[in-house]
Design a protein that fits this description.
The chain is mainly α. The chain contains eight helices and five strands. It starts with a helix and ends with a helix.
Length: 200
């Protein structure tokens, strides 16, 4: 409602969201236990992830919207499960590979936030951070390329806000100029919000 109020006053608003609290820790635990071959422990943590998001969706959405939001979240979780199945066989993953899946908490959270704004009657659009936040290729602890990020903000975010939309961007992650997914290290969602603020 705070975001909607600012937008209704004609202000240009860009939202950057982190994962729900404790979700990234849970994802890391799933990845670690999967890599070690502990399928049962990984499944327990995965179940906690499912329940965490299910509870939030049940609390936030009217019944008419709940099913479509849950379907989006379930599709993302299914992709995470596929990744973990592959990891169970390989038993190892580089930082570059982990960076492809680690921001799934932010992706889910951003999709939920967009749906919340739409339920409140606001015009909101999900933006994958890989489209706007450009970094170097130090996977797991990437540094921003401010000039390229500023250019992407002008190309992707500014046209949306000028048309009255509220872009909701995943925090914590970005991509190299060639499009490889990266993460900014712990606390990266606050950092990415600052970077995008500077870029805008």
């Amino acid at each position: 409602s705070v975001v909607r109020e600012h937008a209704e006053r004609g202000e240009h608003v860009v939202v950057v969201v982190s994962a729900l609290s404790r979700v990234t820790d849970c994802i890391l635990k799933v990845l670690d236990t999967t890599r070690l071959g502990n399928r049962a422990e990984a499944e327990r943590e995965m179940k906690l992830l499912d329940e965490r998001h299910e509870n939030v969706i049940a609390e936030l959405f009217e019944e008419s919207n709940r099913r479509s939001v849950a379907a989006q979240v379930n599709a993302l979780m299914a992709r995470f499960r596929e990744f973990c199945s592959a990891l169970l066989l390989l038993k190892s993953a580089t930082r570059q590979v982990v960076d492809m899946v680690l921001p799934i908490g932010e992706q889910i959270s951003a999709q939920i936030f967009v749906a919340c704004l739409q339920q409140l009657g606001a015009r909101a659009e999900f933006i994958d951070s890989a489209r706007v936040l450009v970094t170097d290729d130090k996977f797991g602890d990437a540094a921003p390329d401010i000039d390229s990020t500023r250019q992407r903000c002008d190309e992707v975010l500014r046209p949306l806000v000028n048309r009255g939309f509220i872009p909701v961007v995943m925090g914590f992650s970005g991509a190299t100029l060639s499009g490889q997914s990266t993460t900014l290290g712990r606390g990266g969602s606050d950092y990415s919000a600052t970077i995008l603020g500077a870029g805008m």
